[in-house]
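*Target chain*
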Amino acid sequence: METKQVVEALGALAQETRLAVYRMLVEAGPEGLPAGEISARLGLPAATASFHLAQLSRAGLLASRSRGRFVIYSADFGCMNALLGFLTDNCCGGESCAPTPQSVKLMKRKTS
């Protein structure tokens, strides 16, 4: 993933409503949700929901498809995985970043 794409994706998620929309679509899974249902669940006017869905789509975070007269949106998990991969690419020198039991004990001692 290129830096420009990362900045656009993070910028799209750096807004409360868009983050709520994205999280809802992650929970919905690959099946996604119709735009009207997203709007209703979040209590958004249709035009506002449409604006936020367009921003997330433009950033590559959402996929959309037509089902009859409805537009179904779903999270683009490939894009999110690429974004997370970019953010953690050089993390911890290629080793696992998960805390070890020993490091957890040390952190507890420092805060006590």
Summary: Helices lie at 3-13, 16-28, 35-42, 46-58, 77-88, 101-111. The mean pLDDT is 89. The first strand starts at residue 33 and ends at 34.
